[in-house]
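Worked problem 6 (solution included).
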Amino acid sequence: MLVRPLAALASSDIAIAGGKGANLGELMRAGFAVPDGFIVTTDAYRLAAAQLDPSDPAAIAQRLRSDPVPDAVATAVRDAYRALGGMVAVRSSATAEDLPEASFAGQQDTFLGVQGEDAVVDALRRCWASLWNGRAISYRSTHGVSTSGLALAVVVQRLVRARSAGVLFTADPLTGRRRRAVVDAVRGLGERLVSGAANPDHFVVDAQSGEILERHGDAIDDARLSELAGTGARIEEHFGRPQDIEWAVDAERLWIVQSRDITTLYPLPDGLPDPDADLRVFLSANVAQGVFQPLTPMGLQTFRLIGSAFATAVGKPPADVDAGTSILRDSGMRLWIDLTPLMRNSAVREMPARAMSVMEARSEGVFRALLADPRLAARGGSRPRTALTILGVLRRVGVISTIARAALRPDAARERLYRDLRIVDEADPGPTATALERVAAFERLVLTVPPRLFPRLVAPLVVGLFSYNAAGRLLRSVATQDEMRTVLRGLPYNPTTEMDLALWSIAQRTRGDPAAEERALGAFLERYGHRAVAEIDLGLPRWADDPSYLRSALAGYRRLDDAALAPDAQFARGAREAEAMIAALLSRVRGPRRVVARALLHRVRALAGLREMPKFQIIRLFGRVRGILAPVGDELAAAGRIARGDDLWFLTLPEMRRGLGGEDLRAVVVSRRAEYVREMRRRHVPRILLSDGTDAEAAYAPPAVGAIRGTPASPGVATGVARVLRSPGDGQLEPGEILVAPATDPGWTPLFLTAGALVMEMGGMMSHGAVVAREYGIPAVVGVPGATDRIATGQRITVDGSAGTVSLGDG
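Solution. The predicted structure is:
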């Protein structure tokens, strides 16, 4: 069918009517006031474009503009227009699917005030051609949208003679807050707003109460504004998602002329309580670990198991270990930690802000602002009772005694830790002869090993970091912060640093000898093959599965021809500078103060380098249990329950068991993979998300003013060419270039060996990137808002790691 009335369409008709046409038909069927009209279907477009070469977009656009519209289409359109009559709007309605942070709005053309049969047919032709304009082609290319099967429908609607018109968002598009109607309005046709020809009036309305919270302008009166907010709330309820709505008001009524999903909002976890009664605060575990991309379902499942393991260890086992605890949530295929119990406890509610001051500096101010939100007012929690509860938990898991031993004998504690780490390799998984036994063995190890490792791994690190903070306070009258940071250079006993230096050694020892390189790389993978980029996701391949990234890193190392910049030389130089700084600081104090300072700084050097050890060992465990589970995928694939072996990582443990019992899981995997691909395209992931949808940083963080500023993380100044990478596989870092990244995890650190400096969008002084940068002696500034957008590859910049600034140019 070439033409269909709007009233005959539903949202499921996107294939024939495009997104705009299908939604308008759905709204008409639901009783909303939508101007009458018809749709010229995608079949009509395909008929017109049937003989055109899709490899030549410019030729397609030209032919669609100039060639006669096929007779059958022209006749159907003329007949439908005669029945409608009058002045119309002719609007493109594409079938391209909306993506996270990409709505495709405005990529094809719209024509208003069209009148007459010939004019409507001509506007139809120009809408078709706009599917291949440069703007639309570039947009599809940027967002990875295939042109295969691409088609365009065209909406023809009676034109509203608008006194005012505009856009309504049923959730705040900037902060993400749901049930907060945001309206931009202009007098006359809304095209003036969309085209930028007029500055709109701006309004904010509480969608539940109808209260007008902000009014900047008079393009629409209070009564219409409240009506508009209420209508938007009903449309959102109908579609089940926040909506971006175009509207117009004539002399008589409010009309809806378009509605589509707001694609920029981050999805909320399922099953949340009403935020007005119980607002929840979620911290992104992904962002905290420097992994912005989504996790596979098996990666999420593993963390739910770990959550269950620790809950059980403290005496609060969950009802379902596979489902995990309520503290861990997932949304957008990413992991979120519910911090609300802390935020509502008067005794510890400042703990998140204090932790962020050293972990993720940009979030510290956000947490402090949240403390002032009346919806997060404290609900009890006495200091003595809370302290006793925390001490009881720590004692139960064995942390207190381990901390005490580490504080008294730091070197002995470190050596004991190395012995205890055999747990990872020696823990008994039980039988693994059958696929079901392998699933059970995987679950058993993940549930039992992390709680046994936790006190052994965390206690020495706690002593090291406490000693650093205590030494800073003790020496603050004689030591600058920059001098104290120098003490952290070249820290020994960091497994990630040791890994990177081992890879550097391979690059130097095997230069020009491919056979030797393969042997050395094999030995390297025996020790470090469990690691990977975005390694917290158990569902991703390890370096042992695919070492191509390491080979690329080796090639990059060999291009470094300045001996003074060699990583091993820089690390050794950093260690010497740290020891010299300690001697200098101790020379400035006398008596008991000097004795205590010496003891504290010794513990810093003995234990603070273990910062990377907890993650290193957990990832070692991941490598082991991934190997146990992987053959289950091959068995399921052989039985036809999934398409291929690595589909396993897109299932949960209960689904695996059902698959082994005979259930066909191929459709589940296809759906999950499609969601994973969509989420990989998402450019922005909130650091802190509220259950009302608010991206807390967008709502509460102060805007950056003037110079590009962040948090000083590793002292020194470096000037060089920027290399902006959003993931370590995006490109090659040339020696001396300044790495600009959203965040880093250990998978990035081979790049640090040749970087001249580091700039990160997130992080604090103790974030992973900052720690490694200090150890390599390269300047680093972290917590720089929008660094990957504000700095361009090839741009010359100066990084001052002491002042925490990034200057464009030579500084």
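Discussion: The first helix runs from residue 14 to 29.
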